[in-house]
Amino acid sequence: MPIIQDLSTYAAAIAPVVNAVHVNVHAVARRAVTAHAEAVGLTPGLLLDLRHVLPLRPITRRALSAVHRYGSAAELDAEIHEHVAQGALTVDGEGTLRLTARGMAFIDGVYAAHADATRRVWAAHDLEPLADLTGRVLDRAGSDPGAALEVMAPPYEPAGTPAGVLLFNRVAALRYDRADAHAAAWAAAGLTAGTIVDLQPGPLRDAIEDDTNHRAARAYDRLSGDERETLFEGLLGLV
């Protein structure tokens, strides 16, 4: 791909690549993660989504609503209650969620499954430069108070985490920067989480996408043109 100089255009181009990298690893690891969950008697659910968050810090129920802005409060509460009942999470009177030893053991197993998956499917690739570039983008990404990225980054990276898992979890967290950019764009256009879902293709949706790309572009402005090309081509080569 020729170097895209316009950052908004670049943000638009790399977004589906980032998503594809994330989805593909989950697909490859799904059988192992499911078997691990069954073996320990836990439902993956939020534990899988928050695998790179909960080992580092507790999360409030209110903060989690930004991550699940398009879902219903009842569905989110049901997931939380299930994890609490299974002994993977605790929740206090203020709605703060904390990981238990049982939940941590599950996440350790998930990290092992993801390490195996990335080692197998990305064996021919040099992952450390891509993990480094993605980490720099994630560090630059905006993290406004109350936004999803504030909840989801930085990711949990214990000593010895292989480059494939570092890359995978940094990509996973980075998606929330664009999610926040999109939410800010549709809010600025006077829409809500409910109305944007039903918005049909047309000038308004196009304008929201343009605004989303403009907002998401900031995360990439510390990379040189060559580094942006390396990141794009490198991630594309993983899918």
Mean of pLDDT: 95
Percent strand: under 5%
Shape category: globular
How many angstroms separate the termini?
Answer: 15 Å
How would you summarize what this structure contains?
With 239 residues, the chain is mainly α. The protein has helices spanning 7-40, 45-49, 61-67, 73-85, 101-121, 127-140, 148-152, 163-188, 193-198, 203-216, 225-236; strands spanning 59-60, 89-91, 96-99.
Q: How would you describe this protein?
A:
This protein has 239 residues and is mainly α. The protein has eleven helices and three strands. It has helices at 7-40, 45-49, 61-67, 73-85, 101-121, 127-140, 148-152, 163-188, 193-198, 203-216, 225-236, and strands spanning 59-60, 89-91, 96-99. The protein has a three-stranded antiparallel beta sheet. Strand 2 (89-91) and strand 3 form a beta hairpin. The longest helix is centred in the first third of the chain and has 34 residues, at 7-40. The mean pLDDT is 95.
List the defining traits of the structure above.
globular; 239 residues; single chain; mainly alpha
List the SSEs and their pairings.
Blueprint: H1 7-40, H2 45-49, E1 59-60, H3 61-67, H4 73-85, E2 89-91, E3 96-99, H5 101-121, H6 127-140, H7 148-152, H8 163-188, H9 193-198, H10 203-216, H11 225-236
Antiparallel strand pairs: 1-3, 2-3
Helix pairs in contact: 1-5, 1-8, 1-10, 1-11, 6-8, 6-11, 8-10
